[in-house]
Structures are given as structure tokens and as C-alpha cells.
Amino acid sequence: MRSKLVATLAGVAALALYSSMAVGSKYNLPEPQSIIAKDIYDMHIWLMWICLAIFVAVFGVMFYSILKHRKSLGYKAANFHHSTVVEIIWTAIPVAILVVMALPATKTIIEMKDTSSPDMTIKATGYQWMWGYDYLQGEGEGISFFSKLSTPKSQVENKEPKGEHYLLEVDNRVVVPVGKKVRIILTANDVLHAWWVPALGIKQDAIPGFIRDTWFTADKAGIYRGQCAELCGKDHGFMPIVVEVMEADDYTKWVSTQNTSAIKTSMHVEK
Amino acid sequence: MAAVHGDAHSHGHDDHHPSGIMRWVTTTNHKDIGTMYLWFSFTMFLVGGFLAMGIRAELYQPGIQILEPELFNQFTTLHGLIMVFGAIMPAFVGFANWQVPMMIGAPDMAFARMNNWSFWLLPVAATLLVSSFFVPGGAAAGGWTFYPPLSVQGGLGVDLMIFSVHILGASSIMGSINIITTILNMRAPGMTLMKMPMFVWTWLITAYLLVLVMPVLAGTVTMLLTDRHFGTSFFNAAGGGDPVLFQHVFWFFGHPEVYIMILPAFGIVSEIIPTFSRKPLFGYSSMVYATASIAILSCVVWAHHMFTAGMPTVGQLFFMYATMLIAVPTGVKVFNWTATMWQGSMTFETPMLFSIGFIFLFVLGGFSGVICAIVPIDIQVQDTYYVIAHFHYVLVSGALFALFAGAYYWIPKWSGRMYNETLGKWHFWLSMFFFNLTFFVQHFLGLAGMPRRIPDYNLQFADFNMISSIGAFGFGLTQLLFLYIMISCIRSGEKAPQKPWDGATTLEWTHLPSPAPYHSFEKPPVVN
Questions:
Q1: Which residues constitute the domain of residue A99?
Q2: Interatomic CA distance for residues B66 and B504, integer angstroms
């Protein structure tokens, strides 16, 4: 009985530990939902291991020295002050490590920059303080709406309890189909903004008077939340981005409701 | 201040300088000016720290409690500007003023009157900056990087900030020309360039960087000013300009600026580690070359601050590779410090503790720097709390810890009195604890998706923000302990011997009494 309890507790503890380390925990990047986000996630983990190894090596030596080579232990100072061989070695090793780090990054950068042949194109326009979306090409072409924060002011002013998606909820979500390459074209109406959805691994500044682009292909249906990431004035913290990824059929249904409804509105009001 | 004043006469020098306030207004003495720089920068550190406390108080809990979003943005903007231009940079110039002439055996700075002016411009600039809180529309609120078009929207506060930056820039350029001229022309006979103390070397290289990039900053803010008031369109697409041009020009200044704030810190640490290891600095010449390489590389990496602004693939690759390359000379420095400590005979007085703390935390900041250099990861962490954590690890536990180390190390020479070692150690350990409490958790906040410069946040970020705020309040209070330690040292510390650190080898310890006389090295020492 007792051993069973201990085993259960240990199992729960291990599971809790694992899940706190696992994807989507609050100690790490959010669970990746696109190939690019996955690459970034894996690269980050891999680099953390390299950093940890360097950390242990360098500070292992330094703290050994701090513990052993102290005057209070009567340690007498040596008098060496250079060694060309050692200095060349510890210049060469970091170069090699950096090359190992740079290679996968280079591959991902080239993928990230490839916005060619998308299945659909959406233009996102930053305003002080909301986003405007125009579906320019692909299924849903012609849909156009604004997307504003839907968290009530009373929650911000602490007069009401805050909801789960406090400050990360909007009146009209950007809806896209799963598995399709979506190209996002960005610009802004007034000042700089940045369109950032961490789970999809994209962030791109929106620059007034200029066009920038980026892309993503969502792996799974779901709702992914992000925020404006470039200081844009008073309500910079209050212009979230919410992307709803739908299965192809659902997306088609959504498009049909959009085409029949009046312009600049959407059925998808978030609760 | 009082100590220098009081002891000046006891050493029998016939200095006919005015007393009272006019002594400080008219002084051309490098020690007086150094003292004023240090007190000024500490004052600004407290002002910038007060703003930081405001920011952390607002972020203590989700929801808007203390600062409305507009005022919050003013706080973050002025916190950055005041800490960079008012606290860290002048503090290093203060160290240069005190130490460079004494370490190279010169009687004073090369341009003594200009030295006075470069200091007295600072209070003017600081007044403009701080008073901008009280003009209609409030202070600048576009971030310390004041990107247009947002900074074109602001009110009178932005103009005050622009003028303030102009004046600060003029002050820095004069200060650096003075330092370069002093180092190149006024070294004692026998002190060749490759025999200079490392602190002097790092300042020589830093001063060249300042002369190179401060005019670029002045140009940028002038273009912003004419865009705001005289109808030009440098940064306005509607008139044929480009907002991204501002970012390029700003960061062409801004990235070398980062190294302007850290190279002299490397210098201070490179003096302290050998002293308390009782062993010469390992790899002196490679330290010099590493410093120079960092300075040169720092001029070709600026666009790594702009990976999300959108640039060609080749641009991203170039700036990523160049940025990663900086890790090599920086690594060489860390290895050299470690090798200096290796088989030394170490003791751990406060300056040594702060120097080791510096290396430990600066390396963590270096790791997150490499992570940020990797473009795909930077896409995720750019403009988030991860970046905030990164640059506070290099600027607070980097530059600021080195400044504390230097202050404890040289205060016996400056004041002729010893600080309280026990309290100094408390200051170190409390700073170390609260610094990490404040900033380590911010890495997690950034990774989980909290953008910087927001006054309010989703509930998922609440725990870490509360921890971070508690850490920040503790860190802020701890710095009042530093003020107490320094004042009580200057007023009533024990008398310091000429060389309280038995491992010290530079001229100010070997040739000058403590406190250093008001006029030192009127006859240059001979260096073998």
C-alpha cells in the first residue's frame, strides 16, 4: 500500500516535472505550430545545451581556482602571464562552435525568407491601436475587417476579474485554413507596429509607406495569440493578434458567411 | 568631495584655487572634475532607478494601477536615456578623469579647461531631460531608441530630449578627444603603448569609438528635429523618406555605444583581477587586440537590432555572422581573466567580488547575446523581455558591477580612507541576489511571449512579473547601502595606506600617497 503510494507520488512528481519542462511550458517558447516555429524551438534547445556545456567548462575551471588558489589556504601565486599555444586554441575552439551554431540557422533563415507561391495572401495593416486585415488572394479573396481588443476596459481598471485571455482577445480573429501556405503582407497606417504570433514563429515589423512580407503554414487547427511587438504609442500593449486556424471545410463555411455579411464585420466575436 | 578638498593642503602643495562652490564651477583639476562626474552619474543613477521602480511597481500585478499607459511609456523612455547617457557613460568618464592621468604618470588632462566645460554641459542636458516630464504632453514616450514616426508624433518633451542628446553628445566628444590626447601625448617617459595599464588601453579605444559615433547620433536627432518642425521627410515615406533609415543610422551609433559602455568595464576588471590574484594579467597583448577587434566589429553589426524590420536574406546572414564573431574576442577576454586567476593567490575583497560577479553574469549576458544573434531565434525574442534580460545582464551586472568594483578599488586612493569591508560585501551579495531575482525570470517572460514596453499583461505572466518587481525593489534599496558606504568612507573611514592592495602594480599605488595629492606627477615618474 505504502510503496504504491510512494510510486504514485513519484510518478506524479516526475510527470509534473516533465510537463513543466515540456513544450508549451512557461519557461520556454510556446509549443510550435508551424515548421519554422519548430525549427526555432529545436534550435533554441540545442543552443541552450551548447551554452550550458561552455558554462560548465569555463566556470568549472574558474570556481575550482577560486576554491583552491586562495591566499587564505596559503597558496603561492605562480607568475606565468602568456602562452601563445593556449591562446590560439581558445580562439579557435569558439570559432568552431560558432560555425556549428550558424549552419542550421542559415538554413532556417533561407526558408523563412521564401515567401514565394503562397496558397493565400492576407494584408495586415497596423493602426493606432488595432489591426486591419484584407484577404488579397486565394480562398476568401475580398474579405476585409478590423480586429480590435475585446477585453473590457473594466478588467484593465481592475473593476472586474480578468479572464483567461485577458488582453489577448479580439472582436474579429484572422481565420486561415490549416496546412496552407499563408503569405502575410504588412504595412502600417501611422507608426511602426509589428505582427507577432509566437506559436507560428513569425514576427515582422509593419512600416508605414512600405510593404514587408512573411509567411506561415499552420500544422494544426486551433487559436494562436500574439501581440504587437513594436512600441506604437499609448495603447501598444492593447492591440493583440489572434489567428484562428480551421480545417479546410470549416474555413470554406467561414468564407461563405463572410461573403454574405456586410463588409468589415465578422461572425466570430470572441467570448 | 570633502576628502579631496580637505587633504589637498596637507600635502604642502601650493594650489591657489577658489574655495566653496566656485572651486567646483571653475576647476580645471582632473581630480575635481572626476569627482563631479562620479557624483553626477550617481545622482542620475538614482533618478533613473526611481523611474525603474515606477515601471516595476506598475508591472507588479496585471491591470493598470499606478501609471497610465502614456506615463508608463515616458518612464521607460527616460529610464533608458538617463541610465545610458546620464549614469553609465559619465561614470566611466569620471573614472577616466581620475585614473588616466595617475596611471600614465601625467599631471592632468591635456585640455584642462575643455575638461571643465565637458562636465558642466552635463547638468544642463540632464535638466532639459528631466524637466521634460513637466512640459505639456509630458516627456518623450517613444522608447530610448525614439524611432520615428512615433517620435515625430510627440510634443515638446521630444524636442527637449533632442536638445539634451545634442548637448550630451558634445560633452562626450570633448571628453573623448581630451582622453585620446592625454593618453597619446602625456605618458611618463618609458611608458610605451604596450606598457599602459589595461584600463587606459580600453579607454583609448572607447574614446575613438565615441569620436566616431557620437556625431552620427547628433546627425540622426537633427534629422528627426527637422522632420518634426521644418518640413523635411528623411523618415517619412509620404515625402520620399524611410522610417527604417532612422533605425540604420541610429544603430550605427547605438551598437558601438553598447561597447562604449562595456570596454572601460573590461578595463577596470582587468586591473582588479590581477591585483587580487597577486599575479600579472594573463595575455596582455591579446587583451589589447581583443579590445580593438571588439571595437572594430562593433561598427559592422548594427542591423542585428533590426532583424524584424525586414531586410534581404544576405543582409540577415551577414549581420548574424558578424555578430556571432564578436563572441570570439569576448571569449578570449573571459579566458584570459580565468587564466589570470588560475594559480593566483586570491583574496576576495569587495572589488574582487564585484569583478568575479561581473565575469559570471556578463558571460550569461553573452550567452543570451549569441542566442539573440541567431536570426530565427531573434525573430521570436526581439522586442520581448528576453532582450530586456539580455541587455540588463550586460549593462547592470556588466557595466554597473564593474563601476562598483572600480569605486571600491580606488576610493582609498581618492579619499585617503578605507570603506567598510563588511558592508561592501553585503552590498555585493545583496546586489547579486536581487539582480538575478529581477532579471533572470525575465528570460522566461520573453520566451513565453511577453513584449517589452507594455504597461499591462496577460495573467500567464503574472508570477514572474511579481518576482521580478520584488527583486527590483530589493536591488534599488541595496544601492542606497552603496551611497551610505561611500559617504561614511569619505567622512570617517580608517586612514588608507599608500597601497592598501598588496598586489597592485600601477603608478597611482606605487608612486602616490593616499589620498592622491591635488596635483600629482608634476614631475613625471620614470617607468622601466
A1: 35-113
A2: 49
Query: Does the residue B373 lie in any domain?
Result: no
Contact B286 A87 (CB under 8 A): yes
**What are the cell numbers at A161?**
476579474
For residue A23, tell me if it sits in a domain: no
Distance CA A43, CA A101 (A): 9
Cβ pair A229:B447 closer than 8 A: no
A6-10, A143-147, B179-183: least confident range: A6-10
A51 in any annotated domain: yes
Q: Which residues of B are catalytic?
A: 79, 108, 144, 171-172, 255, 257, 259, 270, 304-305, 330, 333, 452
Domain coverage including residue B93: 24-197
Burial of B304 (0-12, 13-18, 19+ CB in 10 A): buried
Over the range A35-74, which residues count as b (16 or more CB within 10 Å of their CB) and which as e? bbbbbbbebbeebeeebeebeeebbeebeebbeebbbeee
Residue A155 domain flag? yes
Give the total number of structural domains in chain A. 2
Both A80 and A141 in a single domain? no
The answer on A250 and A129 residing in a single domain is yes
- H/E element, A7: helix A2-21
Q: What is the CATH number of the domain that holds A164?
A: 2.60.40.420
pLDDT 10s digits, A166-192: 999 999 999 999 999 999 999 999 999
Q: Does A136 touch chain B (CB under 8 A)?
A: no
DSSP letter at A27? T
**pTM, to two decimals:** 0.92
Residue B417 corresponds to which cell in the numbers above?
580612507
Compute the nearest-CA separation of A224 from chain B (Å): 12
User: Which of A65, A71, A191 lies closest to B342 in CB terms?
Assistant: A65
pLDDT digits (tens, 9 = 90+) for B146-192: 999 999 998 999 999 999 999 999 999 999 999 999 999 999 999 99
B464 at A interface, C-beta within 8 A: yes
Is there a single domain that holds both residue A101 and residue A124? no
Specify the CATH number for the domain of residue A78: 1.10.287
Q: Tell me, what's the pLDDT at A12?
A: 60
A196 pLDDT exceeds 90? yes
C-alpha cell at B174: 570633448
For residues B49 and A106, what is the distance between their CA atoms, to the nearest angstrom?
40
Which residue type sits at B513? Answer: P
- The ipTM (two decimal places) reads 0.90
Residues 6+ apart with CB under 8 A from A259: A142, A143
Q: Which residue has the cell 542606497?
A: B480
Is the pLDDT at A9 greater than 80, yes or no?
no
> Across chain B, how many H-helices and E-strands are there?
20, 0
Residues of A in contact with B367 (CB under 8 A): 51, 54-55
